[in-house]
Amino acid sequence: MDGPIAALYLISVGALAMCAFQAALLARSSSYVRACWTFALICLTFALFQLANVRQQLAPDLAAAIPAHKWVNFFSLMLVPQIWYLIASLDQRKVAYRIGYGVALAAALLAAENLVAPYGYRFTQLTLDAPSVLPWGERAFLLAGETTRAYTINRLLTLGVVVYAAVFCVRARRQRARFSNRLVWLSVVLIVITTFLASYSDRGALKLPYMSGFGFLFLAASYLLLVRREATQRLTEKISISAALEREMESHKLASQRFEYALSNDALTGLPNRAGALDRLRAMFLSSESTLTRMAVLLLDLDRLAIINGTRGYEVGNQVLVEVAHRLRGIKGGNGLVARLGSARFVVGIAGHKTWAALEREVDAVLAAVKPPFTISGAVLNMSFSAGVAIYPDHASSAEDLLASAGLALHQARDAGPGHLRVFHPSLQQSLSERIGLENALKEALEKEQFFLHFQPQVNAHDERVVCMEALIRWQHPGLGLVMPDRFIPLAEATGAIAAIGSWVIDAACRQLAEWRAMGFAEVRVAVNLSAQQLLMSDLGDTVQLALQRSGLRGEDLELEITESVLMQDPQRSIERLVALRGLGVRLSIDDFGTGYSSLGYLKLLPVHAFKLDRSFVRDIGKSDKDLEICATAVGLARNLGLEIVAEGVEDAVQAAQLRQLGCHLLQGYYFARPLPAHAATALLLDERSQAAGTASLEAG
C-alpha cells in the first residue's frame, strides 16, 4: 500500500489500537470503569473502520471496493450505539441507558440491511464507481451515489448522538466536571465536522475520504489524557489519605496510650491511682506467693489537708501532695509501689521480706521520710499522717482484700486521732464483713422502701413557734433494725448510691410538706441535708425543681443544708452550685458552722440565707465562757452578713435562754422535740395550732 493517505490511515489504526489498550489499563484504576471499557471498544471499532477505509481506497476495481465499503458501513453503524453508551455511562442516567438500547436495536437493523443490499445500506445506485483523484493529487477508490432511507435514518441517529454529547458537555461544563476540558470540546467539534464532510462525499459533492476516524483519534488522545490525569489525582489523593490515616492512627494510638495512662495514674502527682495501684499490687502479690515472702500495704492519710486548703488555698494543698509523692518515691525508688488513692491518701507497697521485723523497719523508714516539715511557698508546714498497715499472708489472701484490710486499719488509726499508726487485726474482719453486707443491703433498700423520714422542728427563738421541719433519713434494716445516717450515708457515698437516696429524701420531704400545707400549715417549711457528692452533682437543680413541681411547692418552701466542710472541699464549684439553687428560690443554710476551718473570704461569697451553729459549741454554753464567746461571735458574724442563725443541739431552758439573749433567730434540739416520725410531727403541729387557738380565745374573751 502506497500513498500518504494510506500511510496516515494505517498510522491511525495503530494509534487507535494503542488508545484502546491504554483505556483498558486505566479502567482498573479509574472511577469510570464502565466508561473506560466502552471507550476501549470504540477505539478498536474506529481502528477497524480506518483499516476498512484503506482497503476500499486502495481497491483495484469496483468489485473489490464494494465489500470493503460494506465493512466501512458496518463499523460506522456500530460506533453510533457505542458512543451513546459511553456518554450514558458518564451521565449515569437510567433514561439514557434505555434510549441507548433503542439506538443499538436500530443500528442492528441497519447492519442487516447493509449486509443484503448490493452496495451496502448507503446507496441505491452509484454515480462514482472508479478511483478518484484527490485535491492533493493522490488516487483513491471513493464511492458516491443516491443515498437510501436507511442512510437518512443513520444520519438522524448520528445527529441524536451529537446532540446528546453536546448537552452532556454543556451540563458538565456548568458543573465543572472533570470531562469539561477544552480539548474534549475541540475533539467533539472535529468529529462533527468530519461526519458532515462524509455526507457531502457520499453525494459526490466532495472528493474526500472519510476523516471522522482522525477526529476521533484527537478525541481519544484528549480523553485518555484527562482520565490519566484523573487517575493520577486519585492515586495522589489515595496516597495523601493513606498518609493522613496513618497519622490519624498514630495520633489515635498516642491518645489511647494517654487515655490508658490517665485511667491508671493521678494527674497531679503522676503516681498510679487506685486502678494502677491494684494492678501493681496484684503483680507484687503473685511474686510474694511464688517466693514465699511477706508483703505489706501501708496506707497514709494526710491529716487536716482540708485546713490547708481552706486557710492557704488549694494551690498550697496541691504542692503539699506533690511533695509527699516526691518523698515517697525517693524512699521507695523507681521499682516500688507508691500510689495516690484519694484526695489525701497514699499507698506504699512493701515486698520481699521474710520477717515482720524487716517489714516494720521499712514502714518506719517510710514514716520517717514524710515526717519532716514541708516548706511550701516560703511557709513551713508541720503535717501529720494517719497510717494503716496490712500484711500478707497474715491479713488477706488477695491484693484487693489486703488493700481493704489496710483501709480498716487506717480507719481505726484516724479514730484514735491524728498521727497514729494501726496494724490490721483479725477482729476488724468482722467489721469488714458487716460493711460488705451493709453495702449489699443498701443497694436494695430504696427499691424495697426501707427508708423513711423523721422530722425535727426548728422553732422561732422568741415565741417557740415551729417554722421549719428538718427531714432526717432513717433506714429500717430487716436484720439490723434501725440504722442511723452516720453509719450508712458514708457507704452510700462510697458506692455511688447517694444520688438516688438523696433524690428520694428531697422528694419525700416535699411530699410530706405538701400534706401539711393541705392541712393548713402554710408557714412551715422543710429542710433537707445535702451530702458532699449531692452538692457537686450536675443534675441536683433538676432533682430539686422536679420535686417541687410534683408537690406543688415553691422554692422558698424548701431549705437545703450544706455542711461547712463540704463547701470548703471545692469552694468555687460549691458557690456555682449554690447560685444555681438560689435561682430556683430555694433557701440555703450552712450546717455545723464553726467546725470546718472555712475561709471567711469564701463565706462572704456564699449565697446562703442562714448559718447553723454546731451543737459542740451549744452543748457547753452554760459551762464555758469560751463557748459562749464563740456563739456570740458567730451570731455577730451572721448579723453583719444579714443572715439568720440557727442554734442546734439545744437541750435545756438555760441554753435556750442564753441563745435567745445572744440574738439567735431559730433554735433546734431535744429541749423542743426529738426527731419524730411523720405522724408524730403532724401531731406536734396540730397541738401547737390548738394551743395557739386556745390562747387567742382567752385573749379575745
Structure description:
This protein has 701 residues and is α/β, with parallel strands linked by helices. Helices cover 61% and strands 16% of the residues. It contains 24 helices and 21 strands. Strands 12-13-15-16-17-18-19-20 form an 8-stranded mixed barrel, surrounded by 5 helices. The termini are far apart. 37% of the residues are buried.
List the helices and strands and how they pair.
Elements: H1 4-26, H2 33-57, H3 62-91, H4 94-116, E1 123-128, E2 132-133, E3 139-140, E4 144-147, H5 149-174, H6 182-203, H7 212-264, H8 274-291, E5 294-302, H9 305-312, H10 314-332, E6 337-340, E7 345-353, H11 356-370, E8 374-376, E9 379-381, E10 385-392, H12 399-416, E11 421-423, H13 427-445, E12 451-460, E13 466-477, E14 481-483, H14 485-495, H15 498-518, E15 525-530, H16 532-536, H17 540-551, E16 558-563, H18 564-569, H19 571-583, E17 587-593, H20 600-603, E18 610-613, H21 615-619, H22 625-640, E19 644-648, H23 653-662, E20 666-668, E21 676-677, H24 678-700
Short description:
With 701 residues, this protein is an alpha/beta fold. The protein is built from 24 helices and 21 strands.
Features:
701 residues; alpha/beta; eight-stranded mixed barrel; five-stranded mixed β-sheet; 24 helices; elongated
What is the first-to-last residue Cα distance?
145 Å
Q: Whole-number radius of gyration? A: 49 Å
Strand order of the largest sheet: 12-13-15-16-17-18-19-20
Share of helix among residues? 55-70%
Number of helices: 24
Oligomer: single chain
Report the count of strand segments.
Answer: 21
Q: Overall mean pLDDT score? A: 81
Tell me about the biggest sheet?
8 strands, mixed, barrel
> Would you identify the regions where 5 or more consecutive residues have pLDDT less than 50?
none
In one word, what is the shape?
Answer: elongated
Please indicate the percent range of residues in DSSP E strands (runs of 2 or more). 15-25%
